[in-house]
Amino acid sequence: MTVQSQSGPLAGVRVLEMGSLIAGPFAARILADFGAEVIKIEPPKGDPIRKWGRLSPTGDSWWWYVQSRNKKHIVVDVHYPAGQELVRRLAGKADVLIENFRPGQMEKWGLGYEQMKAVNPRLIYVSVSGFGQTGPYRTRAGFGNIAESMSGMRYVTGFPDRPPVRVGFSIGDEIAALYAVIGALLSLFQRERADRQADGASETPGGQAFEQGEHVDVALTEAVFSLTESALTEYAHLGVIQERRGNQLLRTAPSNIYPTRDGRWLAIGANTDAVFPRLAAAMGRPELAADARFQDNPGRVAHADELDAVISDWTSQHTLDDLMACLNAHAVPAGPVMNVADIAADAQYQARGMIAKVPSDDLGEVVMPGIVPKLKHRPGRLRATGGRIGRDTDEVLRRLVGLSDDELKELREKGVIQ
Fold this sequence. Notes:
By secondary structure, this protein is an alpha/beta fold. It has helices at residues 23-33, 62-67, 81-91, 105-108, 113-119, 144-150, 171-195, 220-225, 231-238, 276-282, 287-290, 297-302, 304-315, 320-329, 340-345, 347-351, 393-401, 405-414; strands at residues 14-17, 37-42, 71-75, 96-99, 124-129, 214-219, 255-259, 265-269, 334-336, 355-359, 365-369. β1, α1 (23-33) and β2 (37-42) form a beta-alpha-beta unit. The longest helix has 25 residues, at 171-195. It is elongated and about 85 Å long.
């Protein structure tokens, strides 16, 4: 199943994806969802994510079908000079290249930013790595697990009397991927704005010399660290090191999960001065809102344990459904802690198209998460799941590189393509 012509806000944008596993491919997947032509370049053995997690009847992982949706799949072995030359020729026809190798590896293949810039000065080159392209750690190997640990996020996740715990998904890689997308889109916007300058001036409105191409440098550690709110500022100015607090928020209360009578867990966020009185009314305890300990956020934070105990005692007496009805009636933000089965059956997720069924090469339709964000006039579209290795090699190399059948055959016999 060759991915059909693109539509959406990124139609006409061509992306080469040379990443593997999570961060680079997730970034390219988002661009593909919104119409970019993403050409995924795999090694002969395929992206390792094809074997990560539970396997489908085809032998590829179910994760592969999600992560590589809407992309074209080609195999080029860049360990061969002929393979490197094919990538350079493809880059000459591309707008964006995404790679997530350790810094220096692409340069060894002759495919680094400066080398590719000589081929295509307009190319937007996106590098995602553990620690970035500069600095003393630049050549270290780095996965999301390491980034989450070294960013400060892992340190504050969990309960104070137990070791730090990880989030159950690869959030470090996926946060970095979002920044990679932001960087690519910023660069595309700047390039297009320069193209529109009728006088051909070489400077942007801000007065800085503008180079049409760009090198976007995303470090996993920095991407996760950027989400740590005021932790650094509070340490620098107050000497405070944020510690683990379980499910409580450090800076505002009450915001926690609470047990229900039917063995479920319910998240409640009544952590503003406007909402807390509504929670007190829902509990039938209006006097709590007048209690000096709970009248403002600093007081509620200082007495969060006492407040959580009162709320837990109330929620424990009622079923989840009854609690949700009551809290919704009082406009108190609340929601159950949901597993994936709950999500798949949830009316809101279904109504928003987030339980999507996508056609595949070999498996009929595959269920996967839908597209975020939703665009009213030019929405993204799910055209196909990830597919067979090398499915689009011949089509892409014929169309973009101009290879003949004989040239394709020769390269295949040499092991350069597949």
